[in-house]
Amino acid sequence: MRLKYVVEDTDRHGTVRLYYRRHGQKVRLRGPLGSPEFLTDYRRAAEGPKAPKQRSSSPGSVVPRSVKWLCVQYYKSSMFRELDPRTQKVRRSILERFCENKGDGDKPFALLLPRHIRARRDALADRPEAANSMVKALRQLYRFGVTYDLADANPAKDVEFLRSNPEGFHSWTIEEIETYEKKHPVGTTARLALALALYTGQRRSDLVLLGKQHLRGGWLTFTQQKGKGRNPVRLEIPVVPELQRIIAATTTGDMTFLVNGYGRSYTNAGFGNRFRKWCDEAGLPHCSVHGLRKAAAARLAELGCSEFEIMAITGHQTSKEVTRYTKAASQKVRAEAALTKMGGERK
User: Fold this and answer.
1) Would you tell me which of 189, 248, 256, 342 could form a disulfide with 211, CB atoms 3.0–4.6 Å apart?
2) Tell me: the pLDDT tens digits for 128-159?
3) Domain Tyr recombinase spans what residues (predicted)?
């Protein structure tokens, strides 16, 4: 039997080995020559090595011109990098969840239409804030695409927001504040957290960073964390006597007023979780730390402060949000003033 490209190689022990040799390829063949095993190996060697199976999308790969690809380009851009770290984290998380749902991230971003986004929005109808956050993130993603000539249109711009709770976070009442204070007396970190939030009107991202280094002549001087990279807001807020009394009576950290049981500063998320437990312990499951920011603004409105005076405390750049915070309180003040005038006329 004569077959092409078959060679024999005899080693020093006299053993004969069979090989298929062609174009630099050398493949060992099972013997003996002409056996079924030999013929099977010969056919395989003659067919050549099989090309590796190509996978459409391996884990971690990005399909060119897909939604996920557009996200990657967005993350590299200055439009994304100029956002503050927390906003970056939240927006990236929203976009990644969008891409992971039903493989939408591998689909061409140019084919995403408003009706597709509405369908995804309506699937979150039981969580309107989450649905609206998704639409906002997609608007910014495609705004980047249009600005950088990667996309022709912004499909998310034509998608309407769902109606959410117009009141937002629950604003603490005087009775709820008193209930919390009875459960957490002066000297505890829980009480200090309440006082800082109530007497400064700041977000939790600022509360966890406030410390002795921000105290200057009876004033708290600091820059708010939200928008710090793009539009920083620097505030100077007087420390009222009640807040000063509670700070002096509480064990604080070297760099932050609020510290956990190990003497370490809280992270933003860690403080939110801890405050949630403090509220639950006081029987206030519907209250939150952000609700104290609203309560502070409402209390200032009840005391007759103008919107600009309140903005000087909360750090808001426009009166729109302050108006929403203080709507009920402002109505109460105006009603009292109106009826006082009416009573004076009748008298």
Assistant:
1) 256
2) 999 999 999 999 999 999 999 999 999 999 99
3) 164-338
